[in-house]
Amino acid sequence: MKYIVPLVALSVVGCSGGLKEFPVADAGGVVLCEGKPVPFAKVQFNPKSVDGSKTAIIGKPGFAFAREDGTFTLSTYGTDDGAVVGQHTVTAVPDSGHPCNCHSDDITSLMEVEVKAGEANTFEVVIPVKPKNLKPVVDPFSDPE
Q: Could you report the per-residue pLDDT of 17-76, keeping only the tens digit for each?
C-alpha cells in the first residue's frame, strides 16, 4: 500500500503540461452593416499563420457575440480576455433572429487584422450588403408545411 502514494503523485505531475496558452491582448469593436450596428452577430478572430512559421499551432480563436448596440469584446481563454497577439482573419455572422440587409458566413473572411500587445485593438467589422440574387437558406430541420 505504501507504493500507491508515490504513483498518484507522479501521475499528477506528469499531467500538468496541459494546453499551451498564447499571449492575448484586449480586443473588441463594433459590427456594422450599411453603417448601422448589427445586434447579436457572432464574431470570430482566427489566428493566421505567419510566413516562415514552422508550426501549425498558432493560437486559439477569439470569439464573441455582439451586444444589442453591435459592440463586442473577444474572449479566448477566459471571459473578455481578448484575442491572441498576432495576425487574424475575421468572420462575422448576423443573428438570424435580428434580420438585416447584410450577409456573411462562418468561413468567409471579412478582413485581416493584427492584434497587438499593449494596444487598444478596437476594430470595425463590416458585414457586406446581401447580394440581390442570394437565395434564402433552407433549414433542413424545419417543417416543410
A: 455 689 999 999 999 999 999 999 999 999 998 766 655 567 899 999 999 999 999 999
Give the span between the Cα atoms of 87 and 64, in whole angstroms.
17
Are the C-beta atoms of residues 125 and 29 closer than 8 Å to each other? Answer: yes
In contact, 47 and 84? CB cutoff 8 Å: yes
Q: How far apart are CA 64 and CA 43, in angstroms?
A: 5
CB of 110 closer than 8 Å to CB of 126? yes
Q: Which domain holds residue 68?
A: 20-126
Kindly report the CATH number assigned to the domain that includes residue 26. Answer: 2.60.40.1120
**What is the DSSP secondary structure assignment for residue 80, as one 8-state letter?**
T
